[in-house]
Amino acid sequence: MNKNLEAARSECAGIGTQVVWAGEQVQHPYNATQTPIVLSAAYGYQDIDLWYDVALGKSEGFIYSRMSNPTVATLENKLCELEKSESAVAFSSGMAAISGVLHTFLCSGKRVVSTRDSYGGTNKIFEEFLPRMGVEVTLCDTLDAEAIEHEIAKGCDLLYLETPTNPTLKVLDIRRLVAAAKRVSALVVADNTFATPLNQNPLALGVDVVVHSATKFLSGHGDVLGGVVCGAESLMAQVRHYREINGAALDPFSAYLIIRGIKTLALRLRQQQQSAQALAEYLLTEPLVEAVNYPGLPSHPGHAIACSQMRGFGAIVSFVLAGGMDTVKRLLPRLRFAHRAGNLGAVETIYGPARTTSHVENTLEERQALGISEGLVRISVGIEETGDLLADLQQAFAFVHRELANEPASKFSTVLTERHTEVET
Ligand code: PLP
How far apart are the CA of 225 and the centre of ligand 1, in A? Predict the structure, then answer.
């Protein structure tokens, strides 16, 4: 599409309009209004010179879909506009995107600094795969900014941030940590999956590379896997080259589903965030709940930082149930409007304990070392009506309270009495 029209469109439009039109071409074959799903593995040329020029990148066009594909390219353009990025590269999953970035920029002898609270799969790359490649990894206490700065100052090639974190919703001060990384010329990578480009643009805060699991809020319907990496073309050219050879390209049908999902992202997120705030506030009053994690709560330790770098607090809430897994097993089956599953970001509300979702890859000992309690439950708040989600959670807790009341010898009775007193005072 005409670049000037594209720029004019994204400059003048509100975010709800941008998600619909960003990256979309207006002219498709047969005058189709929707991005076609181009399933061709390869692209044929009568003109051998043109074929050669396209292969060398001297002319625009496509050669082979592991390298680039028209449907995938539309998704990449869409993410570029939303993340205000020069370039983007799509992968077959969020983990493919994350490992693609880490493999592109790291090799034996390099040093990575990150935090202990990243998504469990990412944590596995740090703990298991990178050390095997001879990369030194230091994982700091997520909330100890001084310790992270100290480790960066010791020498660091890549700083990896995830904020808010999955599933504990910790918020990192992006500007502060970027400043520390820039002092030692480290590349900064940020996972923006939880915030989405609507709530946070890490590139605008100084981050070099943004990664997304498009499986989550971007696609929004829990029916596709994908990942996207955004950043300057000089960096994305390297990531694209890695993807070409590694082969973890996104398939065109998945790209189409993600494009379609992004068009309703603003509408979905508005409703989801309103409900997330309401559920988090209710959970604060629930005696069976030991802790509530949601950056939108003024009591959340990262609330002020979130206000300074995010436009909304997102649609994930997590909470810790007294009694651990036993209470989880009592509560979750009672919910009427919820999947109990290991995904997030979909239109349906999804509940899941960290043990079977974000940290399913980790052993009990590893989860304990990471401070992930067995009673930690994540809610991915869906687009259902706020009142219904609230009533559903309330009735599920009411059931558990009745059940516990009928078990006078319950091991939680003391805990509960103490919590009742705490919540009431
Ligand atoms: N990043 C975050 C924050 C995630 O929550 C996840 C998955 O849950 C991933 C990355 C990995 O994404 P995918 O499952 O698409 O590989």
Answer: 9
Q: Please enumerate in sequence order all residues whose Cβ is within 8 A of that of 264, keeping only pairs 6 or more positions apart, or say none.
A: 19, 220
Q: Do residues 208 and 357 share a domain?
A: no
Residue 280 sits in the same domain as residue 176: no
Q: Which of the listed residues 215, 232, 262 is the one where a domain comes to its end?
A: 262
Q: Kindly name the residue from 119, 160, 256, 294 that is annotated as catalytic.
A: 119
Q: Report the nearest-CA residue for atom 14 of ligand 1.
A: 94
For 22, residues 6+ apart whose C-beta sits below 8 A from its C-beta are: 9, 10, 77, 78, 81, 82, 262
Stronger pLDDT, 3 or 86, i.e. the higher one: 86
Each residue's pLDDT tens digit, 238-267: 999 999 999 999 999 999 999 999 999 999
Catalytic residue among 117, 191, 208, 251: 191
Of ligand 1's atoms, which has the minimum distance to the CA of residue 95? 16
What pLDDT, in 10s, does the model give residues 165-190? 999 999 999 999 999 999 999 999 99
